[in-house]
Structure to design on (1068 residues):
């Protein structure tokens, strides 16, 4: 009998909720076939069967929460009896109710309501002092069990509607607050003349199929990746009392979803050709919009690029995505007067603002990095060139 | 219903009880010739004579002890302490004799004694004359402790106190003496151990007594402007404590603020918070909050004194706190 | 120091102005025999109590009255049935003299339900309100204000009863003594405080001699501050005490004024059962004092009057021994208070 476990899908993930079972006990399942949809604090994802066989038992039913690593279902391998009675279920590593539950900060009333409604306190984000879960948190969580409506709630004219924070919003709220409170941010802005880069993009896209087209953002990601490889102090994070310099350049790309912002990761961007970055980026965004991100999509980022150029935003300042030491906020490439060869001419100017964590790096280091990003984008041949020996 | 002041409520009740029962006598410093520091006993010497309105020397230990002896012999003395601060001089008599003699005699005597006077801060009376001693007295088994907030409460509690069998610590408040309010006519009594919900509300419970009830009500009016409906309980009696009313309310509103003028450590609010925690634990959505006086001897300077006293602002703040509002 | 104290102990006997001759007290001799019996019984009761304490039957503190019997006996002999009294924690003999049952008194010491206070007061808090005994109190001086107020109440209610207040010399330095006797003096001026204060001067405030605890050792002088006349009396001589008591009680009853007596006496046992070594006084001092044992003093008077001989003494002794043994037996067999007694009598019932 094979166990289907609640997979860990992010560094901070401690538990997930089963939204929907795609298979029922008795159904045949094939390895790689989606069997359930899971909700975490970041995404909804499908989990796949790791074995061929028959779904023997559902341990965690829809709407229930399980800790990472807990058994949520059992698959009878070929030859095993799929009967429920034959199944011996190992108790979950940490029971729902128990000392661990006691460690959650929750008001007595919240505990009681959660118990009555069959909700796990671990699945509820506390909004009280020190993260205490209060009655309103439990009530909001109860309403949350149904999926968030796709369309934005509108308040009736002249009235306000209190909309409980979704889990994703709660996570964003918590992480962004932590970041802004704990990391001393500093900001550097450069103007980058993008005419050459845009020309490169257009020339590439002229020969590419629609699904392979390169975006400005891909150029920015590639430029950032190359610059990061040369500036390890920016490709870093604060880990306790030390700075971790990452061996890989994994760039998180901010994706706006109706429910909130998500930042899936493109791995090894310094070693991937631009076209591969473009391909992977497109796939990643599609998975994110479809709620089908894989666990690894959400971890491992070492730097973030956030781009609001498509909304014609010219410049903005981003909050660090912890524990990363820097984030680049990219605006639209707009036609501006630029001086070229002593003359004022029209040019596509894009502003990029780097937010950096002063605990990890300083202004000069960040400026050097940003200057390299600017140079790479203004002289974009290097974004597509292959450097010898550059693995 | 007649509208009279808190002072007249006490005085009138004394007169009525003295008319009704010749075993009621009054004792205290300057209650006769001087007519009472706060004029509670004005004209009573003339009315009832020296035997029943007894001016005492400045000997709290002596006259409180003598009153206990009188009570054991069947009189119903009502002793005025000029302020409760002076009762500390009589503490041994109150604690070791009044509170316990029934018990260690195996129930052979009653002690129908009332000790009354103003408790708590006045205006710039400084450290030795501004204390709130309710928790001290409410600590001792054998004593009953009451703290009226209105003329009606003053009347009803005093009548019950005088007619009872036990020593009663009757805590007045000088700031309330001139406060007017309606008092039910004819023989109005309030049983001990019965609190009154003086304002209904569903969002939180504010428990108070004596002058603090008025702070609580003021805070409740302001909270109502924010859309918060506070329930306000006037305890009236601290010992016995009406635990049922308190717990029932807190269980319904899920949040409680307790207001006391006295110092925070080991105060009445601590006891009430514990009662709520014991009785309504599973129904609380926030820890019980306490609004108290500052933990310092009372300073003289008016600005510092005001800082040392609870305010309705502080009650509003505490209410927002238990509601998790900013 | 020891000799000086011993001399002082005898001084009361020599100087007592009220020292009664046999002739003067002749009419009371019959009842003196009765009080002799009671004093012997009280003495044996105290000795039994000390044994029971050593056996662990009596807990807490135990203050016995041996040596001072003539004082309480003399005053209580003169009390009217409706008079009342208060005393301190050395209170066993007072209860017995007033007629409380030996068995119930011993049961209280044993902490049993048949005790005078249902086992809830113990040795220091004997009470028998039905006999006018308003209690033994354990805070030195703390009962004096109660007695003052009680005296006021007696007169307020219109009767002519008096209130007696026994206290030790050590209590005279407590604030309660001064505050309340000042009030007694004030009220007495209006005839409203029929109080008899009996200072049982056994020369020691616990282990501190009188002159070590009182700046003024002249007790009548101290009482005169409060307009209370105080007579000195030989506290080892029952007849003398009784004579003084008769006068004082009558005076208080008639005038409504407080009066006082200083009865010079001596405590044969330690302050309490734990006062084993008594470092503050010598064995000689105690044995000297025992030569004027109040029981012997009365015995001699009764022999002189032909009311008592050896066989009579022996018979009284045997009778008392039997009564005390029966009391101890009663106490032993009495049940401890049931658990529901714990919460009874904290407050008046039916309120």
């Amino acid at each position: 009998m094979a166990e289907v476990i609640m997979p860990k899908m992010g560094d901070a993930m401690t538990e997930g909720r089963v939204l929907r079972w795609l298979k029922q006990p008795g159904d045949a399942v094939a390895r790689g076939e989606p069997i359930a949809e899971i909700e975490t604090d970041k995404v909804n994802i499908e989990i796949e069967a790791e074995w061929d066989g028959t779904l023997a038992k559902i341990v965690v039913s829809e709407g229930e929460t399980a800790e990472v690593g807990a058994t949520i279902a059992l698959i009878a391998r070929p030859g095993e009896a799929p009967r429920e009675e034959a199944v011996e279920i190992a108790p979950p590593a940490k029971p729902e109710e128990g000392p661990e539950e006691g460690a959650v900060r929750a008001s007595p009333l919240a505990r009681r309501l959660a118990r009555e409604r069959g909700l796990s306190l671990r699945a509820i984000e506390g909004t009280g002092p020190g993260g205490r879960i209060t009655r309103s948190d439990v009530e909001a969580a109860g309403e949350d069990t149904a999926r968030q409506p796709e369309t934005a709630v509108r308040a009736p004219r002249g009235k306000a509607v209190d909309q409980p924070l979704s889990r994703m919003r709660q996570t964003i709220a918590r992480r962004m607050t932590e970041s802004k409170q704990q990391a001393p941010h500093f900001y550097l802005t450069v103007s980058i003349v993008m005419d050459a880069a845009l020309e490169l993009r257009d020339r590439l896209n002229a020969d590419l199929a629609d699904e392979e087209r390169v975006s400005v953002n891909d150029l920015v990601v590639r430029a950032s990746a190359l610059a990061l490889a040369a500036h390890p102090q920016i490709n870093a994070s604060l880990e306790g009392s030390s700075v971790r310099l990452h061996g890989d350049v994994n760039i998180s790309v901010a994706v706006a979803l109706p429910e909130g912002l998500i930042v899936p990761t493109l791995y090894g961007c310094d070693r991937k050709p631009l076209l591969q970055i473009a391909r992977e980026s497109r796939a990643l965004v599609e998975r994110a919009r479809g709620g089908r991100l894989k666990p690894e999509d959400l971890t491992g980022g070492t730097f973030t690029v956030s781009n609001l150029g498509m909304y014609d935003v010219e410049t903005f300042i981003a909050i660090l995505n912890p524990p990363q030491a820097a984030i680049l906020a990219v605006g639209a490439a707009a036609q501006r007067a630029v001086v070229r060869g002593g003359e004022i001419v029209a040019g596509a100017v894009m502003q990029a603002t780097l937010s950096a964590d002063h605990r990890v790096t300083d202004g000069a280091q960040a400026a050097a990095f940003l200057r390299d990003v600017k140079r790479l984008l203004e002289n974009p041949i290097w974004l597509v060139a292959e450097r010898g020996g550059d693995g | 219903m007649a509208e009279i002041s808190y002072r007249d409520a006490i005085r009138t009740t004394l007169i009525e009880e003295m008319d009704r029962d010749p075993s009621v006598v009054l004792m205290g410093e300057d209650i006769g010739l001087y007519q009472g520091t706060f004029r509670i006993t004005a004209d009573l010497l003339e009315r009832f004579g020296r035997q029943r309105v007894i001016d005492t020397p400045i000997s709290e230990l002596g006259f409180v002890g003598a009153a206990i002896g009188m009570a054991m012999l069947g009189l119903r003395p009502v002793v005025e302490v000029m302020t409760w601060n002076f009762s500390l001089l009589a503490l041994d008599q109150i604690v070791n004799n009044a509170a316990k003699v029934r018990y260690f005699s195996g129930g052979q005597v009653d002690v129908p004694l009332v000790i009354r006077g103003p408790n708590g801060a006045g205006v710039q009376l400084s450290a030795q004359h501004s204390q709130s001693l309710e928790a001290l007295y409410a600590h001792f088994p054998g004593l009953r402790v009451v703290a009226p907030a209105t003329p009606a409460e003053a009347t009803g509690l005093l009548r019950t106190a005088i007619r009872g069998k036990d020593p009663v610590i009757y805590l007045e408040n000088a700031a309330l003496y001139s406060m007017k309010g309606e008092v039910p006519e004819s023989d109005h009594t309030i049983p001990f151990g019965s609190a009154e919900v003086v304002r209904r509300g569903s969002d939180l419970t504010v428990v108070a007594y004596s002058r603090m009830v008025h702070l609580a009500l003021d805070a409740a009016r302001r909270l109502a402007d924010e859309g918060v409906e506070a329930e306000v309980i006037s305890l009236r009696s601290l010992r016995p404590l009406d635990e049922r009313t308190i717990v029932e309310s807190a269980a319904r509103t899920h949040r409680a603020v307790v207001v006391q003028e006295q110092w925070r450590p080991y105060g009445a609010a601590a006891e009430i918070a514990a009662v709520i925690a014991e009785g309504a634990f599973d129904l609380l959505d926030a820890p019980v909050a306490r609004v108290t006086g500052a933990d310092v001897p009372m300073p003289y300077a008016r600005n510092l004194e005001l800082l040392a006293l609870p305010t309705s602002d502080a009650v509003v703040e505490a209410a927002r706190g238990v509601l998790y509002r900013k | 120091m020891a000799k000086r104290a011993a001399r002082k102990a005898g001084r009361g006997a020599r100087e007592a102005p009220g020292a009664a001759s046999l002739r003067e007290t002749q009419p009371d001799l019959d009842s003196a025999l009765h009080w002799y019996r009671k004093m012997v019984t009280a003495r044996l009761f105290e000795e039994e109590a000390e044994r029971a304490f050593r056996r662990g039957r009596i807990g807490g503190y135990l203050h016995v009255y041996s040596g001072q019997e003539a004082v309480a006996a003399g005053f209580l002999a003169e009390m009217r049935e409706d008079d009342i009294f208060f005393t301190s924690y050395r209170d066993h003999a007072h209860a017995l003299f007033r007629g409380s049952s030996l068995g119930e008194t011993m049961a209280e010491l044993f902490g049993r339900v048949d005790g005078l206070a249902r086992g809830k007061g113990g040795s220091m808090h004997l009470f028998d309100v039905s006999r006018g005994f308003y209690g033994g109190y354990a805070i030195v001086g703390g009962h004096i204000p109660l007695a003052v107020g009680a005296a006021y109440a007696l007169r307020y209610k219109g009767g002519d009863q008096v209130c007696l207040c026994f206290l030790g010399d050590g209590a005279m330095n407590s604030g309660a003594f001064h505050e309340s006797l000042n009030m007694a003096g004030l009220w007495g001026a209006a005839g409203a405080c029929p109080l008899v204060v009996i200072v049982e001067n056994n020369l020691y405030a616990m282990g501190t001699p009188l002159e070590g605890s009182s700046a003024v050792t002249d007790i009548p002088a101290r009482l005169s501050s409060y307009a209370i006349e105080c007579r000195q009396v030989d506290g080892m001589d029952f007849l003398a005490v009784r004579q003084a008591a008769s006068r004082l009680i009558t005076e208080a009853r008639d005038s409504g004024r407080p009066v006082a007596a200083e009865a010079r006496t001596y405590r044969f046992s330690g302050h309490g059962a734990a006062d084993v070594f008594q470092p503050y006084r010598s064995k000689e001092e105690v044995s000297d004092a025992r030569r004027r044992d109040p029981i012997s003093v009365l015995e001699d008077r009764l022999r002189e009057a032909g009311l008592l001989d050896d066989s009579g003494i022996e018979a009284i002794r045997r009778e008392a021994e039997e009564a005390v043994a029966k009391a101890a037996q009663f106490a032993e067999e009495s049940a401890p208070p049931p658990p529901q007694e714990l919460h009874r009598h904290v407050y008046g019932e039916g309120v």
Notes: Confidence is low (pLDDT under 50) at residues 84-102, 146-153 of chain A. The interface with chain B takes residues 107-112, 127-129, 134-136 of chain A (CB under 8 Å). The radius of gyration of chain A is 24 Å. The first strand of chain A starts at residue 2 and ends at 5.
